[in-house]
Amino acid sequence: MVESVFRTVSARYKTVQKQMKQHPYRYKNKENKWIQVSRDLTWLVKPIQFHRPQADLIRQSNYSFVDKMKQISMTTLGERTKLGFTNKGFEKYFAEDWKLGTAKLVHNRGKWFLHIGITKEVGDFDTKNNPQIVGIDRGLRFLATVFDSKGKTLFFDGQMILRKRKKFLEIRRQLQAKGSKSAKEKLKQLAQRENRWMTDMNHRIAKTLVVAYGSHTLFVLEDLTNVTFSTNDLPKSLRNSHRSWSFFQLESFLTYKAQAIQSAVVKVNPAFTSQRCPKCGIIKKANRHHETHEYWCEQCQYRCNDDRLGAMNIEILGQEWLSGVKHPKIKNLTTIG
Ligand SMILES: [Zn+2]
Questions:
Q1: Ligand 1 center to residue 222 CA distance, Å?
Q2: Residues 102, 150 share a domain
Q3: For residue 301, how far is its CA from the centre of ligand 1 (angstroms)?
Q4: Does 292 lie in the same domain as 144?
Q5: Torsion, Cα of 181, 184, 186, 188 (10° steps)
Q6: In the chain, how many domains are there?
Q7: What rounded mean pLDDT belongs to the chain?
Q8: Is residue 336 assigned to a domain?
Q9: Are 41 and 144 members of one domain?
Q10: In this structure, which of 134, 216, 254, 261 has its CB flanked by the most CB atoms within 10 Å?
Q11: How far, in Å, from the CA of 283 to the mean position of ligand 1?
Q12: CB neighbours of residue 297 within 10 Å
């Protein structure tokens, strides 16, 4: 148990380090330009704290199943303890192809929960297996616009999500105005509820994508590490909201769900994906008309929805990756005006 303390603490710092790297610090300078500063662990103002009691239990040495899986036997600070156990609803994870790993015992609101990590060996994504390529453009008006190598487009509408987030914001404002102790407690619960809801939505979108395209699919995403979205598409009330949609979470859910079915996720450079004409290759910012959400190529007259255009260019970068280009990106050689 003492050993596991070190593992747990260093794992948490690694996670936070990764999150900070994904979310650089941004501010507007005197010239009203956005400045971005990457963050590392030195930005933490205080050490990470663990508020809830928890213990990491290693399979076999700290916990094991006994009595034909009707009981679980666990190490505690006192003596080894046996508890009743049921795998109801989780039967498939106790089947042969899943391996049970380290479990985490956590205490929350008067109850103890045991989270068991599970792993499964799956075949690798095979680049030579003629995979279909799916370009995914993420944004706020459409959470995801998807274009595949067969020319089909899928849109994941962001409006319902925007409405719901507006509602969360309204309740938050009301509670903040009150400022009482119970309002503060409710604010905390509200934030947790919003997080759970966002996680659930990201799970659903990722699941819909892997179900729609299946095995041997290359999902192509833009590397959003240093990208911020234009908030012009958002209703005014949400523009100054600090809470951004967790596209990074969607990306990590999609990655593991894709890997589980021998598909893969690759990230490409986002430069010019909303400015290049996928038909003639010209890069021109003015071809994109924000008011009508349309891209209209001056050179070859190709017209299409601007979110779809992004997904098309991302799909093309996926083709390049598959043909061996390690870091495919659109090169700005043809810019005019
Ligand atoms: Zn064109």
A1: 22
A2: no
A3: 6
A4: yes
A5: -140
A6: 2
A7: 88
A8: no
A9: no
A10: 134
A11: 9
A12: 19
Measure 316 CA to ligand 1 centroid, in angstroms: 15
- Cβ-based neighbours of 115, under 8 Å, separated by 6 or more: 103, 104, 105, 106
- Helical residues (DSSP H) of the chain, grouped into ranges: 2-22, 159-178, 181-213, 236-239, 247-259, 306-322
Ligand 1 centroid, distance to 216 Cα (angstroms): 31
Cα 228 to middle of ligand 1, angstroms: 27
Q: How far is the CA of 282 from the centre of ligand 1 (A)?
A: 6
Å from CA of 284 to ligand 1 middle = 9
What is the distance between the alpha carbons of residues 129 and 64, in angstroms, rounded to a whole number?
A: 41
| Distance from the first to the final alpha carbon of the chain | 64
Do 222 and 298 fall into the same domain? yes
**Domain assignment of residue 237, yes or no:** yes
Measure the CA dihedral 127/132/135/136, to 10°. Answer: -100
User: Is residue 83 located within the same domain as residue 143?
Assistant: no
48 and 143 inside one domain: no
- Is residue 241 domain-resident? yes
Which of 330, 92, 90, 63 has the alpha carbon at shortest distance from 223? Answer: 330
Give residue-wise pLDDT tens across range 282-326: 999 999 998 899 999 999 999 999 999 999 999 999 999 999 999
pLDDT of residue 239: 61
Taken as a whole, the chain contains a residue count of 337
Is residue 126 assigned to a domain?
no
Q: Which amino acid is it at 180? A: S
Cβ 134 vs Cβ 147: under 8 Å: yes
Distance (angstroms) between ligand 1 centre and the Cα of 157 equals: 27
Q: Whole-model pTM?
A: 0.75
